[in-house]
Amino acid sequence: MSGRLFHAPFVNAHEGFELTALVERSKKIAHENYSGIKSYDTVDALLDDETIELVIVNTPNPTHFEFTLKALQKGKHVLTEKPFTITPDKAKQLFEVAKKNQLHALPYQNRRFDSDFLSVKNVLDSGKLGRLVEVHFRYDRYRIAIGPKATKENPIPGAGLLYDLGPHLLDQVLSTFGMPLSWTKTLAHFRPHTQVDDYAHIHLAYPDNLQVFVTTSLMVVDSKPAYILNGTRGSYAKQRADIQEEQLLSGMSPNNPLYGIEKENQEGSLVTVDEEGIKQSEKVKSIKSSYLNIFDAVHKTIREGKPYPVTQEQLLAQLRILNG
After folding, report:
1. Which domain holds residue 61?
2. Over its length of 324 residues, how does the chain's per-residue pLDDT go in tens digits?
3. Same domain, yes or no, for 240 and 185?
4. Rounded alpha-carbon distances, angstroms, from residue 297 to 15, 58, 77, 79, 108
5. Are residues 54 and 121 part of one domain?
């Protein structure tokens, strides 16, 4: 799913890339959508292709370090799915190898370009909330059955909900508020016979007594707002949209003019209070968004040497929280 939805369509759509090859170990179906693409049986065979400059690693979590390291050792730039690695020490090792070989090892954090999250950023930038007091970021689903993917459901490093959806939420928090002063973490197991966490909650404390709460759960039948921000002058609430994933699943191209535009009635709710204590309510419409932006950032980092928006400091902080 990751390759089919979140990577191949964007590499193919961006004029700075040429989608050349991929690994298909069993079913050979990529050619149905991308004529002329090479389909390798193994990762090593793909890495031996000297025409390839950039490799995307979107394999199961426990293999990210191994395959990213192999790609760097073969002289390739690498874009690695979340979680970048399981531990911060492994991430540091990859960054060191990349630097030594004058290559880029880049974390893939596409959810920075979700329309719902961008609406949060815009409201914060407006200053209408006043001084922030309390922030909640959630990513909820309802999936009571144990899934078929062994690397997600068996008790091995990198399995469980925290490592699945936690990187999205933590990257959004860290890119918005910076490094926390401290944090506490709670994991729980609720589904019958689960061997991994299916609930995670992280409380992050920031300067000026700002309290940030990150929660993800597979036990939410009726999802509430994914983003709630309370400040001294207002509150903002926004439901999760996931419009890009929905459109990609339907087969829509990232180049479609309608791509990344939220449906009607998905606006955020902003309530502010003036100096006389009078409340005002308004709907906040999200701007058009696209995961193509992260591929554009990858291209500019490799070709133009521009700083990559997901910094190593942010990535290492994310992994310390996940792993700590």
Report:
1. 2-109+294-310
2. 899 999 999 999 999 999 999 999 989 999 999 999 999 999 999 999 999 999 999 999 999 999 999 999 999 999 999 999 999 999 999 999 999 999 999 999 999 999 999 999 999 999 999 999 999 999 999 999 999 998 999 999 999 999 999 999 999 999 999 999 999 999 999 999 999 999 999 999 999 999 999 999 999 999 999 999 999 999 999 999 999 999 999 999 999 999 999 999 999 999 999 999 999 999 999 999 999 999 999 999 999 999 999 999 999 999 999 998
3. yes
4. 13, 18, 13, 11, 10
5. no
